[in-house]
Amino acid sequence: MALVFGFTGSTELSEISAAVSGAGGDVAFGNYALLVGVVLLVAGFGFKISAAPFQMWCPTFTKELTPVVAFLSVASKAAGFAVLFRVLFTGFFDVSLDWAVLIAVLAAASMSIGNAVAIGQSNIRRLFGYSTIAHAGYLLVGVAAGVNTAGGLPDAPVFASIGLNSVLFYLVAYTATNLTAFFAIAAIGERVGSDRISDYAGLFARSPVLAMTLALALIALIVGRHWKFHRPGAKLYVFTAAVDSGLAWLAIVGVVNSAVSAYYYIRIIRIMFLQQASVSPGAPPSRSPAPWAALAVAAAVLVFLGVAPGFVLEAAGAAVSALGV
């Protein structure tokens, strides 16, 4: 931010945009000072949203209380993307052809690294820690798709609202899905006394409600949170936006990574429903109504968003139009 201020002379996004639009030259972003400043800004945002290679804090999910983990995996990511939208699309849109490439590379790296490492995890909270890196990559696909490189002139970026619309829709759906999954994991962990995936064996026979709720969240993470198969899910919205903006290669990377993620999500479902229990029944369910109420509300929102996502899409469109790009 100090480098950007030094070049533009302002911290107001509109004034930064005016200064950046006059920057010329053969260097990306117009000059080296602005180049370093924007790259460092993206690195800071990348840490906030747990994008690779700034994801080093995500594996610590196993060391925190589950409510804290749920908050970090959802709230900080949503806030990070909100600020990222404002800064990039309001202050630096005139050089968006430069940063869109950077965002696309980070998206591909986040999807690939997150899913590749999640496959080998035996602790379910650690698995979700790496999974959230992959989902940051899916969201970054939509950010990169907010700049149409297919139909515009080489030096004239064209704003594509479908990209940011898809990101906001994905964020809302991801929030409901992840909260449902983490609330279910907290309840299951209390019941079986472990976060090891192997200890989830036979869970359906011992606690069918918890098993089905977690399975619902896992299926939503695979298919993109839409239960009407004749309509596109959140992931498909993001990948379609990428294709429309000339980033077909990034959409292909996303589809391949979605298939990879299906493997470790389905593995958890298979263990819960098909394997025999290898541990003692564990503690009885908690008598406190608060955890169960939180789980019920999150699951209800998840199902509702899957059946009737229209109002979320309309709200996303209104929010994106407020950027004024």
From TrEMBL:
EC number per UniProt: 7.1.1.2
Reactions catalysed: a ubiquinone + NADH + 5 H(+)(in) = a ubiquinol + NAD(+) + 4 H(+)(out)
Membrane topology field: Multi-pass membrane protein
Gene Ontology MF terms in the entry: NADH dehydrogenase (ubiquinone) activity
Membrane-crossing segments per the record: 28-47, 68-93, 99-120, 127-147, 167-188, 209-227, 247-266, 292-313
NADH:quinone oxidoreductase/Mrp antiporter transmembrane domain boundaries: 1-260
Domain of life from the UniProt record: Eukaryota
Enzyme class: translocase
Signal peptide annotation: none
Keywords: Membrane, Transmembrane, Transmembrane helix
Subcellular location: Membrane
InterPro entries: ND/Mrp_TM
One cellular component (GO) term of this entry: membrane
First-listed, main subcellular location of the protein, grouped into a coarse class: membrane
Protein name: NADH:ubiquinone reductase (H(+)-translocating)
Origin organism lineage: Eukaryota, Metazoa, Porifera, Demospongiae, Heteroscleromorpha
